[in-house]
Each structure stands twice: as C-alpha cells, then as structure tokens.
Amino acid sequence: MRSFRKTEKDLQLPLGAVWLMNSISEYKGKQELYLRQSPQILKALVEMALIESAESSNRIEGVTVERKRLKPLILGHSKPLDRSEEEVAGYRKALDLIHKKHNNLDISPQTIRELHRLSHTGAGDAGEWKKKDNEIIRKNPDGTVEVIFKPISSALTPSAINQLCLAYRHSIEQLKYPPLYATACLIFDFLCVHPFRDGNGRVSRLLTLLALYHHGYEVGKYISIERIIEQSKETYYEVLQKSSKRWHEAKHDIEPWLYYFLGTISSAYKEFEERAGSVKPFRGGKTEIVIQTINNQIGEFSISDIERLCPGISRDMIRVIFRQLQKEKKIVCLGKGRSAKWKRIG
Q: Which phi and psi (to 5°) does residue 139 adopt?
C-alpha cells in the first residue's frame, strides 16, 4: 500500500521519531517489572481501560451511552437496550477477543471484518466491506460541508485491504521496518482506504491494539489508548488531513501522523508507569488508583471529578477514601454538598 513504498535502504526516519520509538522501547523493557509488581492494581487498571476504551472509541464517532449504564453494560452485567448500547457492548467484545486471543489473530482481511462485525453489532452491514463509494467530509462553522478526502472506491476496497495486509507483513518480515513505524503505516493506510460504510475509526483503534500486542507492547491492556486519542481528537483529525494529501499518488507525508501515533503510545506508557510504577503493596489496587489520581490534581477538585477519572471505581468507595485522606489531613473540603470542592494539603 501507499505508505509501504520505501525500501529498507530508502527508509530514513526523522530523529524525533527515532527518539520516540527508543523511548517507547525503554518503557516496554520495564513492562515485565510492573506486570509482576501488583496483581491488584493491574486488575483495576484492566477494568478501567475496558470501560474507557469502549466509551471513548464510540464517543469519538458520536455514539454515547448514559454514564450509569456504562459500567454494567461493558462488564456484562446488563443487556443493551438500544443501538448505541449494542455498539458499545460490541466494542467491548472486540476488545475482549484481542486481549484473550491476540496470539491467534493475524492482521488479515478476515480479522478486520471480524473486528468490524463485533464493534458494529446491530448494523445490517456489520463485517461487510462498503458497497458504495464514501467521502470524508468536514462540517464548517458556517454550516457548509467540505470534502477533504476521497478514499479508495468500493469496487477496489477488497483488493486494497488484501494488499495492505500483505504489505504490512512484508515490511516487517522482509524490509525490516521498525515495528512501531510499520504499525503507524498500517493504521494510516487503513484509514485512507476507509473500507467500511461506518465504524472505520473504531476498527482502526482495535487494529492498533492488536498490532501492538503482536510486537510485545501491552500497554493498551492497562491504559486506554482510545481515551488518549479522544482527549486529542482535534489534533488527530488535523494530522490525518495533513498526511493524507497526495496519498493516492504515494507522495504523501507520513510524518505528521507518525509523530501523533508515537506520541499517543508514549503518553499511554507514561501513564502506565505513573500508575503501576509507584504501587505501595499494602494498599488495594483501586484505593491506590484513587489516591494517585487525587495526588495528580492541581488546584481544586470534586468527588465527581475523581469519579470521572476512575470509571471502574464506585462513588461510595471514592467517598470512603476521601474521608480517610481528610482524617489524615491530606485533603481538605472547601464547601458542602454533592458539588463541594476539595484541595490537597501540602
């Protein structure tokens, strides 16, 4: 495909990208240490990542679910009540498939269609390539609509995805592309092909998780990469537009996307290190996550703020931790009622 045209000799990565890849590799080297360190906190991180990933990846595409329904829905304690809930629950099933069976899932057209089938549950064309040509548009503030990119035609989509999967494998096995660079190219070209009528963004994020697993980068199991993308989605769309110019002629500039992609993975690992690297073994995993989240706050914050940042942890448990920290004179309450603000002491 278009981003895999350079040979091993022609491939000259910018120094900034090389530095980022080396930094991520260093985090990867510490991964095993963290995984052995505290099973309790890792279990809590897995649950939080599942909830955040399913919520964020769907919300980027405009699919939302009531917050009180989110956790029971994703953890399988409640059945979907509408189409939006079906899609969120379906994304969770796709995540579960990758987390449990990534060693048996190759990067292939069959796998891509299965990820779409699961994450697009309830749609009549779930798991099927687009049947009509599509366009990527931008809605301007004045209400006008602008076509910013025309993907591969529907007629050429099956062969394009097959070529993409072959080019990706060839880049790893024969051209010896650095795995993170090859993964960035894979995801970018997938988004340019845009093989489905809807749900391409969600499948691209699932593919990212799967490819990272294949190369030994397990951070996506513990930290939601989807949430990090959602938090920077304006930049996400901006770099996609920059890098897609002249993609059809294979004269595009992959660097804006590459830097964004590597920066996202690096941010996930930094967060993983902050959460898993400072674990105190005498505390429970969820308690430690709440305390770390409070310690990361600058200025005033509320119980609701902490609850939003710790989606796998109940409000009642967060209140208990707040009371304990208040008793220990580590935080102070600045008001009364549900929306009261708090502040760290010292």
A: -95, 115
Helical H segments across the chain, by residue range: 15-37, 39-60, 67-74, 83-101, 109-119, 157-173, 179-193, 200-214, 225-231, 233-244, 255-276, 285-295, 303-309, 315-327
Angle formed at CA 109 by CA 106 and CA 111, multiple of 5 degrees:
45
Per-residue pLDDT of the chain (346 residues; tens, 9 = 90+): 899 988 777 888 999 999 999 999 999 988 877 777 667 778 888 988 999 999 999 999 899 998 889 888 888 889 999 999 999 999 999 999 999 999 999 999 999 999 999 999 888 899 999 999 999 988 888 889 889 999 999 999 999 999 999 999 999 999 889 999 999 999 999 999 999 999 999 999 999 999 999 999 999 999 999 999 999 999 999 999 999 999 999 999 999 999 999 999 999 999 998 887 654 544 567 888 888 889 888 889 999 989 888 877 888 899 999 999 999 999 999 988 888 999 999 7
Report the alpha-carbon distance of residue 293 to residue 299 in Å, rounded.
13
Closest residue by Cα to residue 11 from 263, 256, 255, 257: 255
Decide: pTM greater than 0.85. Answer: no
Q: Phi and psi for 338 in degrees, rounded to 5?
A: -60, -35
Count of C-beta atoms within a 10 Å radius of residue 342 = 21
CA dihedral 318, 320, 326, 328 (to 10 degrees): -120
- Between CA 176 and CA 7 the distance in angstroms is 9
Instruction: Give the whole-angstrom CA distance, residue 205 versus residue 283.
Output: 33
CB 344 within 8 A of CB 295: yes
Tokens read off for 233: 């989605």
Hey, how many other C-beta atoms are within 10 angstroms of the C-beta on 62? 7
The structural domains of the chain, ordered by start, are 2-276 (1.10.3290.10), 285-344 (1.10.10.10)
> What are the residues facing 268 on neighbouring strands?
none
